[in-house]
Design a protein that fits this description.
Shape: extended
Radius of gyration: 24 Å
Strand order of the largest sheet: 3-4-2-1-7-8-9-6-5
Mean pLDDT: 81
Structural class: mainly beta
Order of helices and strands: HEEEEEEHHEEEH
Helix content: 10-25%
Largest sheet: 9 strands, mixed
Strand content: 35-45%
Amino acid sequence: MSIHDIPDEDLRRGDVACTILCQMDFATNPQNWWLGYGPLTAGGVAYQGTGDVIKIGALSVTFGMSAGMVRFEIPAASPEMVARCHNQSTEVNNRRCQLFYQLFSTVERDGEHQGRLIGDPISMFQGVMRDMRSTSSADSRVIELEAYGRMSRQAKPPYGRWTDADQRARFPGDTGMAFIAGLKDKAITWVPGT
């Protein structure tokens, strides 16, 4: 679903708001939640409201691309939640996380109730979860979880570096890159064509 699939008259009235829906595919207990109160069914998926229990860090989303990294935080975690947070790498790491926009009406109109959903959820982020951690002090307990989109690992080369060692790891016995290190800082003289 795209924002372009929603009729213009619904969007231009000025009485449309949006909320965030989240799907976290934990290994043993997948969670679907939204930043509101109570249960919500959108796009055929049931979501549980979290109210203000979970906070989402600032998103940087560019046109046509997924955000680089999203940070989720539970600022008032219970001791039980913190205990469950430890040793959760198999439960969390490299598991899918997806965020959606969901538009809804803020007024009652033409027999339709306030809060009715407009269209299906619109995907705004898809990535994998990593790095769940907790911090505890005498007066507070915080759980943080990070999810990384496909654009967050741009600096990492996809197949290794252009070095002799990486080339030999990819193709044992290949010596094609053996001379690359010796080419560093060499001056190349170009002879103009005659």
